[in-house]
Amino acid sequence: MKKRAHPINSNENGRAAISWFNVLVMVVCVGLLATGFFFAARQHFTAMDLGIKNSKLRKQVDDMETEKRRLLLSREVVRSPGEVKRIAIRHGLRDADEIFTPEQANAIDNGDRSLVVKTSLAAPAKTNSNEEKAVKAFYPVSGKAKTSPAGMSHLDETDKQKKVSSDLMATTKIR
Amino acid sequence: MKRAKRHSKKTNLRQQAFNRFMLIVAILVIWIGGIGARLVYLQVRQHDWLRDRAEKQRIDVRKSKLPRGTIFDRDGRVLAMSVSVKTLYADATEIDDTAATAKAVARLTGADKNQLQRVLNEGKESERRFVPLVRGLDEEAAQRLNKGLETLDVKKADLPKYAGLHWRDEQTRSYPGESLAAHVIGFSNADGVGQAGIEQSQNDLLYGAVIKRVQERDRLGRVYDETISEKEPPKDVVLTIKSSIQYKVELPLAEAVRNAGAKSGMAIVLDHKTGEILALANYPTFDPNQLKSISNENLTNRAVQNVYSPGSVFKLITYGTALERNLISPDGTIDKGNGTIDVAGHVFKDHGGGGTVTYTKALAQSSNVSAIKTGLKVGKENFYSSLQKFGFGKSTGIELPAETGGIVRNPARWNGDSLASMSIGYEIGVTALQMASAFATIANDGVRIQPRIIKEIRQFDEKIGSTTEPAREQVVSAESARKLRQMLREVVVSGTGKRAAVSGYSIAGKTGTAWKFDEKLKRVNSAKYMSSFIGFAPADDPQVTIAVIIDEPKIGGRDGGMVAAPVFSKIAEDILPELNIRPDLATETLVAENDEAAQEPTADDLFTGLVGDEVAVEKNIASDSPKVERSESKKLVVRPEKAEEAKGTSTPAKLTQVKPAAADRPRVINKPEKGPEVKRKT
Prior knowledge:
Chain A is mostly helical.
């Protein structure tokens, strides 16, 4: 019967011989592997963390965009002519047609100033009697009008100046 | 012997060790084999099921729609915008206790608990996975609900932390101006598809594409990776409309339609130098925010979709063509005869009687006989060619849906009296926009510029994507256009359009009163009018063209001079200062109480309408005022020969306008300006 070859190197006493070099290599390999795993795990969790932060920031950007749109829309709603009119009415302003009787309108058209009270934004209108008098109030323009250039490019100029149009006229009641 | 025994013992130990080792190996092999078999079973046989389960746990696929593009006016003011809103919905299959869920939601939203429970029960019975509970909430309200609904023992990846409840992102389209320019803007339906106006015609640009977000989540439900399927974001559309002008056009138009008991009204303000439409209004109108209340009739953008016989305003084309071909001159005379004319057995009458008048006077009086005679002078082919040049019979190309081209028959199909009828605006169908465009052509020295309503298309990053360059065509010579403008000026000064006058500004235009064709009677109905006034200002150097058309006025005067001209006047009075167009006529002050405060006004003061703190009422002396011209420096210059007259009638304190004095307002004509009397159907 053929003798089985012993797989382990043995010394003279028959004990297994330990190669310190092999052990060292093994330790280094295991160390490298462990370090690799450690760094990989660290990178994985860092990536996860960054991903989560990124996702949160992205959501914040989306939310901000939505909020910006919502605010822009709210501003436009408040600036819309219908809403401005409603606010004006809430503050006591009335349409000219509502407070001028046909007689008053005709009288004013004919130059009768007794029904019209002088007013300015600098000083409040003065009335001597207790009866209601109609008054036309004008908002002043903030800048001087410019010469009209050719075409409608002047429209843009008007906007840049951001001035209040002279025909922003409101009519109210003064007691 | 001893040695043999020792050897045998050593062999046994080795054998024993080997056996043990093999046993361990066998166990390991069986163990690993078992695991392998199990893995094979799981990964091969149960692959799909496990993959789905894992993906469900880890990957969240969300579909959302990009917000639909915004529509701006020329000043950057929002006319239509989409905003994201949230809908709280229930997956009824995930809810065990519907009563508790309904109670929790009702407590926070103020909704009816019983109704919520009923909806949830119905959903549960039919195993519905989408049962909307609260719609249209903004982010803030959604956060509040999330807090209120938070349940500690519920572990869910998404909010709210309440079993069976979820959020869904949706959009809502808002029109902040309400009915402002509603016919231009149109509206879109719940799916974000344009149904009318710019919303419809530019739907491809505005449409918000659906994007898919693949989110990978960790075991706590936090998103750590997200993949978004890229889609091109929708574009924004910037219109040529100016909101403030649009409002100033809509208001008097609506008032006029209501006061006249009319069926409808249209008004257009056109910058004829660029072809840009500054305002396009229809009345009755609608509020696109309230789709349920919109009636089909109110939806029609009549200014581009409805065809009508223009009547006397069409004389512009007749005289314009004749002037272009040097067949007439403004100061030349025409004999109206006895005020009637017979063309191919069709007798046309003039309401103003007969006699000889200048062509200018004939146009001012809106003489039918003169216009017909002029039309006959022009001839069929020339007239037809002119119609085509002015753009009648074909759509203008404006970026609005369902624009009609009008009706212009080929000369081969004309009757004997067709040319005569067309000379005075019958037997032809036009749209309000086409008519406005024709007047704009004359105002623009004979150059026709294709009207447009889109100024530019903007990318999502606010860069300009595209702009359109309108087509230009010289229709009549600048000289002919100038002569025609002089004639049209006379219409307002002494003719049928006196009520279109505006204090401080020279207005030129033409009235039109056309009988409408009655579908039932199959002929024109003399009880139904289409009254219009189309003109421009200032007459010598036109800056803006305005068209006003009132359909079937019933109360009071019904002709164009009575119904439409005052609306024109009101619109012009309101918008000309806003457009920085200076008054070109001298005006006279009636009242100037505060003389010491009232100083010699500068040209700018004339524009502002306010000097010192006084408000003045003025007299309009437009018709008999000294002629005022503009020098190159745009200063007001009074002609020497008329200056003395001006001095005699005006005070030093020249405050500007409020309204023309009643005494100087054009005389109210109770008798309507009638269209031609038609004895047989046309």
